[in-house]
Specification:
heterodimer, A: flat, B: alpha/beta, four-stranded antiparallel β-sheet, globular
Chain lengths: 306, 267
């Protein structure tokens, strides 16, 4: 094919990205706001940074932090276990099991966590004692509700049941996201229901379960501060006990926020690695470096050989 | 539970039959998809099932390894029911463990490959032999490498399904089915989801398998494969076997007008 000669050296044409002035203005505004915030933080005496620093490793604060972490881990494990059972019931062909699971999710996810917490703490108003009585033998086991329903136990029960409502939906969605062909292929190889669930369905469902579970863990970590209402000595409760005496409210809230943020940061990093593990069979497409600079300012690093 | 020989006399199964079906019926709700399928695939032969879409050929294949439950008639693989036991004139649904044991002897290759996407090719091949048959990992790996070699993909053992082309995925899927050392291999339109240039590599593997004496039931649109590798061609239409016979004779000289009409449109 022969074409007429071109007047422009086509092979040396340069592509210039469009300048996005909106991005420039937005960036400038954001920098201004950041400056104002940092100025206030640094200069206002109300924040009392040195006081906050002094309380950071206070024994009461560290004990509270420990209690918060124990609560979070215990509740998360319980809610994953209960949630898995509810999710499997929700996927069962039995109408009764299915309705039971739906009702559970409706109630425990729907009722506010704080109300459930106070209810379980006051369970003795409804049920005075738990006992097992057998005919001819008599009562073989009896315990007063008030004796075992400590603030810690009621916190674990209330928040586990609440959180399990969310976990059930997350796990159900994860299981449903695995194509039915995977189950059929495994079945045609002679694998039974249990093997298919644990070896084929669950590992693939994990890619859809891990990210929202990470979110739930972070949200739960902060939700445990509700237990302050029923006098569990968690992180916030410890701080409150101190500033009730010393009136150093803001510095102690800074201490509390610092510890929550630290734990959230660690959790986010852990989540990143878990996601990477379960996504290892994906071929990843990552955004090139300097993407933002290229888009905003048309700035581009020369890539050799392209 | 009846023995293989008892079943053969009870249901009139010919000697040396691998897949045998008589008056097999299957409905989805009020829609009757299979309306009395009679056919016999002798051991060591290749049967190709063709027919227009909606004729019930895939459903029939899925009935063979009990991915679908049947509504009537009998279906025996190597003289045994798959999902049922015959007692006192009734077919009782078997318990899960027995169904799994019988299914393990029937290999299946799907249109959409259905490789386990979270496992490498090698892991796909060793999973069922280890879990279902309890074969030690080392032995399973050796078999798996030999099978990957056989389908020409030894160097892809550590690749995940997403990193393989459609043709490569289907060849791994065939190897995965073979890893269970099945008595019979079922193919559900194995090349229909492939780009035209990838169909050939899968057909080569299937042709080699046929030559090695594997019993195969193949639902396909590849008339060329049926003519060259098939021992028997079965034309299904509207839930019944409309015509069956030697592939070369049938393609050259179809007896039923429906077969003639179908072949004229696909050839």
């Amino acid at each position: 094919m022969s074409l007429p000669d071109a007047r422009v050296p086509i092979e040396r044409l340069v592509v210039v990205p469009r300048r996005q002035y909106g991005l420039w203005i937005g960036t400038a505004a954001a920098l201004l706001v950041l400056f104002l915030i940092f100025k206030t933080l640094a200069t206002s005496p109300a924040f009392g940074w040195s006081i906050a620093g002094g309380y950071l490793f206070h024994p009461a604060i560290l004990r509270g932090l420990g209690q918060t972490l124990i609560l979070t881990v215990t509740i998360m494990i319980m809610s994953i276990l209960i949630g898995a059972v509810i999710a499997i019931m929700r996927l069962s062909p039995s109408r009764i099991l299915n309705s039971f699971a739906s009702a559970y999710i409706w109630f425990f996810r729907g009722a506010p966590a704080l109300i459930q917490l106070i209810f379980w703490f006051n369970l003795s108003l409804v049920v005075r004692e738990f006992s097992i009585t057998l005919p001819f033998i008599g009562t073989i086991f009896s315990v007063k509700t008030n004796d075992f329903m400590t603030p810690f136990v009621s916190a674990v029960i209330a928040l586990s049941l609440h959180e399990a409502g969310y976990m059930a939906e997350i796990i159900r969605a994860g299981i449903k996201s695995v194509p039915s062909g995977q189950t059929e292929a495994a079945g045609s190889l002679g694998m039974n229901h249990r093997m298919i669930l644990w070896r084929i369905t669950m590992p693939q469902a994990m890619r859809f379960i891990v990210p929202p579970t990470g979110n739930e863990t972070i949200s739960l970590l902060k939700m445990t501060s509700l237990v302050t209402f029923i006098a569990v000595d968690d992180l916030l409760y410890a701080a409150q006990s101190i500033y009730a005496r010393t009136f150093e409210t803001i510095p102690l809230l800074i201490v509390v926020a610092f510890w929550y943020l630290s734990v959230v940061t660690i959790l986010s990093v852990a989540q990143y690695f878990i996601e990477k593990y379960y996504g290892r069979s994906d071929v990843h497409q990552t955004r090139p470096p300097n993407w933002f600079l290229t888009r905003a300012f048309g700035w581009r690093r020369e890539v050799p050989g392209s | 539970m009846t023995t293989k020989t008892e079943n053969q006399t009870l249901f009139g199964v010919p000697e040396n039959s691998m897949v045998f079906s008589r008056k097999l019926r299957k409905s989805f709700g009020s829609n009757e998809v299979l309306r009395g399928i009679d056919l016999n695939v002798p051991a060591g032969t290749v049967a190709c099932i063709i027919g227009p879409s909606g004729s019930g050929k895939s459903t029939f294949l899925r009935c063979i390894n009990h991915l679908e439950e049947v509504n009537g008639g009998v279906l025996l693989v190597d003289g045994e029911f798959i999902g049922y036991d015959y007692r006192d004139g009734k077919l009782y649904t078997v318990k899960d463990s027995l169904l799994c044991r019988r299914r393990a002897e029937i290999g299946m290759v799907f249109q959409s490959f259905n490789l386990f996407s979270h496992m490498t090719a090698l892991e796909n091949l060793i999973e069922a032999p280890m879990m279902v048959k309890g074969i030690p990992r080392k032995e399973a790996r050796e078999t798996a490498f030999a099978l990957l070699e056989r389908v020409g993909l030894a160097e892809k053992a550590q690749s995940y399904p997403r990193q393989l082309s459609g043709g490569q995925q289907q060849r791994v899927a065939i190897a995965r089915a073979l890893a269970m050392k099945p008595k019979v291999l079922l193919f559900d339109e194995p090349t229909s989801a492939l780009d035209p240039e990838l169909v050939g590599e899968v057909l080569v593997v299937m042709r080699n398998l046929a030559q090695s004496g594997m019993t195969m039931v193949v639902v396909t649109h590849e008339i060329g494969f049926a003519r060259e590798a098939g021992d028997q061609l079965i034309f299904m239409d509207q839930g019944v076997v409309a015509e069956y016979g030697d592939p070369r004779d049938m393609i050259a000289n179809p007896q039923s007008p429906r077969t003639r009409d179908f072949l004229s449109r696909v050839l």
